[in-house]
Specification:
The chain is mainly alpha-helical and 186 residues long. Helices cover 69% and strands 7% of the residues. It contains four helices and three strands, in the order ααααβββ. It has helices at residues 14-45, 51-67, 72-135, 140-154; strands at residues 159-163, 169-173, 178-180. The chain has a three-stranded antiparallel β-sheet. The protein is rod-shaped, with a radius of gyration of 29 Å.
Amino acid sequence: QGSSVTTVRRAYNEFLDKQVNVAQSRYSYSQEYADCLSRIDDLLADSTTGLTPVLQEFFQAVQDVADNPSLAATRQAMVTSTQTMITRFQSLQDTINELEVEINGKISNSVEEINAICKEIGDLNNKINIVESSTYQPANDLRDQRDLLVNKLTEQISVTTLTDNKGRISVFTGSGQRLVSEVGEV
């Protein structure tokens, strides 16, 4: 008589999936944070263009003036080292401002990507609902696609998900703000 298939079940563990999402969020955050701090550290600690050389030169000039206040050459050297230090601070400020603009651009891009992913998750919630209510079978492919999108979302921000009894999910930020409702609203 052959065999008949009643349904295909997904091999899926919600607990493990949530743990992977949390770990991915933490990793992505740590990577971005470390990258920014490394760039600032490289900027400030550089032996030629950082702060240390100009500060040492300035304090040496101040010490020279303190030792010989009547010498015009030491006073002029202190003025010169002060101007050099001011120029270096301005240069560092310009570089930090450029870094700020770059980071703000990354944030804007991330917001756009987050919104697009949330819209796709909402659309998949609706498709899953339609397919499963019309066929009475689980929409495993669509659920897998949605889970991949949630994983991709965790690369951008920390999220939590709640699944309703029909298999639709709501997505929330780590602070609890709703990004996607179970009925696909974004």
